[in-house]
Design goal:
The complex is a heterodimer of chains A (339) and B (337). Chain A is α/β, with parallel strands linked by helices and 339 residues long. Chain A has helices spanning 52-59, 87-93, 115-126, 131-144, 150-153, 163-175, 193-210, 221-227, 245-250, 255-262, 302-306, 325-331; strands at residues 8-21, 24-37, 41-45, 68-77, 80-81, 98-101, 181-185, 213-218, 230-235, 238-244, 311-315, 318-321. The model of chain A is unreliable at 1-5 (pLDDT under 50). The radius of gyration of chain B is 24 Å and the shape is elongated. The chains are: A alpha/beta (339), B mainly alpha (337). The interface between A and B is large, with 38 and 34 residues.
Chain lengths: 339, 337
């Protein structure tokens, strides 16, 4: 179903989203570029405050303004720039072609509206369904996401559902117009582990059936490993490393990624303390020149504190933002390509 | 009125997610689908526990029903309208005490006595109640419509628009509103009673929405940053739909309470203005004009003041009790079960 020549559904180019705070300008997303092909899943990982969510809110233009503002960049969706669309036009894309699932299913459904009405709103709005059509469609969607006895439960209120069930409702809502792109912003963070597995399996299954592309934001590397084709590692509003998932996990080319991977507990290795990256993420309003990760990095040299690191190409589809990317990559067992 | 509808409201609605968690603990899902107690049913139950509020509710219902059907019933049973002036001119006065006929003996014809012209006081009070309640309720509905929309838009849009809109409210607030209404009413004094009623209604309505706008704005401000609003925006719902379909229903609790407390406030203002002679004009009567008529003869015919005054006081008290009861019943922080 590729319509555009290069098969890219989404192409983000040099996106910059800044927040104007009392403390100064926070560059929450600073010069980010990536592509997403049709049917693929892209994982975005990073610590809290690294700009993952803001990147995605920027894509559908929901950055709270003020204080946030998309300063520059392009978001090409099927070749057209979403940032140039009128408000009405972007509203027709939201929910219809790009849908979103949020982190906390407890608060992302309106407590005063019946589940069915919240689902119906989507299709009445975007597909022009009549009330009866929309209601049938809502029940079908609830069945699709595995809510038992959907017909009788459709008319209940969100508080009558458990967290996992509510996240299923959110997914049903997000997928009810068959969007081309699904953005899942930490869809499982608020759920316990067994429910998490169910929800992820559900997303995977629905993705397979509908061919939707997915952007999965998470800070859980295990989720990324199991779900995604490509991974972007974000830090301080920058992309630190991007690669195919398997490659990123086997041969990381960035000290930050290495640190993240070492911080994952390994049940087969029970000795000693769990590794943690020392220090804290930098104050985004007062970034020093040089690499934002320098203060926490094991590989730090003088140049890191002076100069901002270059984006180094290590392999096909593998880039790392580091002065010593090639060295780190070789150390992980990779062979950097020469440009 | 909103309160009378409550028992039919057996929809399951909840204030917020915290509560849902608590409820999930009370009703664990055991295969079968357990229907939780709704906010409305819960509130209704707590309202019924409040004796003062129940008293208020009963009185309000009785007074309302009596005002609506009373004059007609009296006409059917006793055969006179509220404006009926009898033609027995042999007496020194036409104003008789309660339960007393023209002959000075007991008579069930006029339980509240008669006024200066010999008209039945009960029928007059009930007819006055129609006007008073009508103004109270209609002005409240108008203040609801204007106040809720205005406050919701200001709160949701925020920023400079909010600032501007709320400064307008502040300015209107700071005007001495009774004087404003009096000036308005005397400037545009209408020749017909109906015109005067409309003018009164506009004058009261134009100021009574201010507090409602503030209350709703405050509610919306705290609601609009919740994730369900972002989720709705992310599904492409328009701003007006988010405001009126998603946010306003969430503010219903405080709005109902404040509306119930606005009715007596407006009725009191109307009575005050009518008492001063700016309000309802004859032949229409409200409790305020009846009291104003009565006070001129207070030394000789005290019942002319006592009955309209007492009826009005009782109704206003009851509405206030009911409003207070509703506030306690709908306030989630009061939930102690």
């Amino acid at each position: 179903m590729t319509s555009s020549s290069d098969g890219n559904l989404l192409e983000v180019k040099n996106l910059r989203t800044y927040f104007d705070t009392d403390d100064g300008i926070v560059r929450a997303v600073d010069d980010i570029s990536f592509q997403l092909k049709r049917g693929e899943t892209l994982g975005i990982v990073g610590e809290s405050g690294s700009g993952k969510s803001v990147t995605n809110l920027s894509i559908i233009r929901l950055v709270p303004n003020p204080p946030g503002k998309i300063v520059s960049g392009e978001v090409l969706f099927n070749g057209s720039d979403l940032l140039l669309l009128s408000n009405d036009a972007i509203r027709k894309i939201r929910g219809r072609r790009i849908a979103m699932i949020f982190q906390d299913p407890m608060t992302s459904l309106n407590p005063y509206m019946k589940i069915s009405r919240q689902l119906m709103e989507m299709t009445q709005l975007h597909l022009g369904h009549s009330k009866a059509q929309a209601h049938d469609h809502a029940i079908r969607m609830l069945e699709t996401v595995g809510i038992p006895d959907a017909r009788s439960r459709a008319d209940s209120y969100p508080h009558e559902f458990s967290g996992g069930m509510r996240q299923r409702v959110m997914i049903a809502m997000a997928l009810s117009c068959k969007p081309e792109l699904l953005i899942a912003d930490e869809p499982t963070t608020a759920l316990d582990v067994t429910i998490q597995a169910q929800i992820l399996e559900l997303i995977r299954k629905l993705k397979r059936e509908t061919g939707t592309s997915v952007i999965l934001i998470t800070h859980d590397l295990g989720v990324v490993a199991g779900m995604t084709d490509h991974v972007i590692v974000m830090y301080a509003g920058k992309i630190f490393e991007q690669a195919r998932t398997a490659e990123l996990f086997s041969t990381p080319g960035n000290p930050y990624t290495k640190g993240l991977l070492r911080s994952v507990p390994d049940p087969t290795d029970e000795q000693g303390k769990l590794y943690q990256i020392p220090g804290l993420p930098p104050d985004m309003a007062h970034l020093k020149p040089g690499c934002p990760f320098a203060a926490r990095c094991d590989y730090v040299q003088d140049i890191c504190r002076r100069e901002f690191p270059p984006l180094v190409k290590l392999n096909t589809d593998h880039h790392s933002l580091c002065h010593f990317a090639r060295e780190v990559y070789s150390e992980s067992g990779g062979t950097p390509v020469q440009e | 009125m909103a309160t009378e509808k409550q028992p039919e409201h057996d929809e399951v609605i909840h204030i917020g997610p915290e509560m849902a968690v608590a409820e999930a603990d009370v009703h664990p899902e055991e295969g079968a689908f357990v229907r939780g107690t709704s906010l409305w049913r819960d509130a209704w139950r707590r309202l019924l526990k409040n004796k003062l509020a129940v008293f208020g509710l009963v009185v309000v219902i009785v007074v309302t029903v009596a005002s609506i059907i009373g004059p007609t019933v009296i006409q059917k049973v006793f055969g006179f309208t509220p404006d009926y002036i009898p033609t027995h001119d042999d007496k020194l006065t036409r104003s008789f005490p309660p339960f007393t006929g023209p002959d000075g003996k007991f008579s069930p014809l006029h339980p509240m006595g008669t006024d200066n012209a010999g008209r039945d006081q009960l029928a007059r009070v009930l007819q006055g109640g129609q006007i008073s309640l009508f103004i109270g309720i209609l002005s409240t509905v108008v203040s609801l419509l204007i106040g809720v929309s205005y406050g919701a838009i200001a709160g949701y849009v925020g920023g400079r628009v909010d600032n501007l809109m709320m400064r307008v409210v502040d300015v209107l607030y700071s005007l001495p509103y009774i004087i404003l209404v009096i000036v308005l009413l005397s400037l545009f004094r209408s020749q017909t009673p109906r015109g005067q009623l409309t003018l009164l209604f506009i004058a009261i309505g134009s100021v009574s929405w201010l507090t409602m706008a503030r209350i709703v704005r405050g509610q919306i401000l705290s609601l609009k940053n919740q994730e369900f609003v972002l989720a709705a925006r992310a599904t492409g719902v328009s701003a007006s739909r988010i405001i009126f379909r998603h946010l306003v229903p969430n503010t219903l609790g405080p709005v109902i309470v404040y509306a119930t407390l606005t009715i007596p406030q407006i009725m009191l203002t109307e009575a005050f203005l009518s008492f001063l002679g700016f309000g309802v004009q004859a032949p229409l009567a409200s409790w305020g004009t009846l009291a104003a008529d009565g006070i001129t003869n207070i030394a000789v015919f005290p019942w002319q003041l006592i009955f309209p005054g007492a009826t009005m006081a009782l109704t206003l008290f009851s509405l206030n009790f009911l409003g207070d009861g509703l506030r306690d019943a709908l306030d989630p922080q009061m939930r102690t079960i």
